[in-house]
Each structure stands twice: as structure tokens, then as C-alpha cells.
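Tutorial, part two.
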Amino acid sequence: MTQHYVACLDLTGRRCLVVGRSNAKVRALEAAGAEVVSVDRYEPELLDDAWLVVVVDVEQGERVFADASTRQIFCNVEDVPELCTFILPALHRRGDITVAVSTGGASPALAQWLRDRFAAQIGFEHEQLARDLRRVRPWVKKTFDSYDERRDFFRNAVAKALG
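Running the prediction step on this input gives:
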């Protein structure tokens, strides 16, 4: 089993390709600031300058994956973990807070079930606290010299706010 490195990507201005029909995938990439090219029919030159590719049309998956791998472009073929150099977790967003759950491709249904349970725990107070902490972050960076002091400040602020 592959152990994935989990990260949140800044796709602002990066070219991303979606092969097959998926308005949801296109909207999610556009919301992340990506320059999205969406096509039904794949041709290798579509990978020129692409940063990542999502393949919804699984019939084209092996070909796209092979071409993307040769060019060292991140590729996700929906529901085919062995043809993925990245996987997409089940997400829930509320303001600045994002809950992401992955089963490493083993069971998207389980990931979605867990996501829904975790997401139900996040309320308006958490969303507001995230906004407030973002606002004081520059002050904290200027005021406290060490990472440990900054970490302790934020831990105490969260504990005080959420009790």
C-alpha cells in the first residue's frame, strides 16, 4: 500500500486538465484558482504545461496516466488507485476550516461517512475562531520569537475559546 504525503495545494494560475465530464471536479479546481482545461477526448499535447490531470473517463485512464507519468505530471484516474500519483480525500469546508478524510483509495464510501461525522462537529464558533486566529497571526509572529512560544500562544487561545 502506498503511503501518501498529504498536502493542500495552491493551484492559483496552474494549468489543470480534466479528462471526461465532471462539473464538480472542474468547479473544485477553479475554486482553488486553477486554470482548468476540460475535454471529453484526450490528446497527449493537452498535457503541455499542465501541472496535474484528473481523469473521470476511466476508459482513457491508462493512456493518460502513462503519458502524465512520462512527463512527471500528477495524475488521478477516478476510482483506479493504481493509476493515481495523487488521490482526492473526501472534503468538507466551512470557512477557513477544511476536513479531509482519506482511506488511501480503499473505500471512498467509508471516507465520506467519516467526513460527515467529523464535519458535524464543526460549528460557527470554530469558523469564527479560525478567522480570529488568522487575524492575530501576524501580531503573534512579531511578538513571540520562538516557534514554541507561538505554538503555546495559539494552543492557549484555542483552549480558552473552546474550553
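The helical segments are 23-31, 61-70, 108-119, 124-143, 147-162. In part three we will examine how such features are distributed along the chain.
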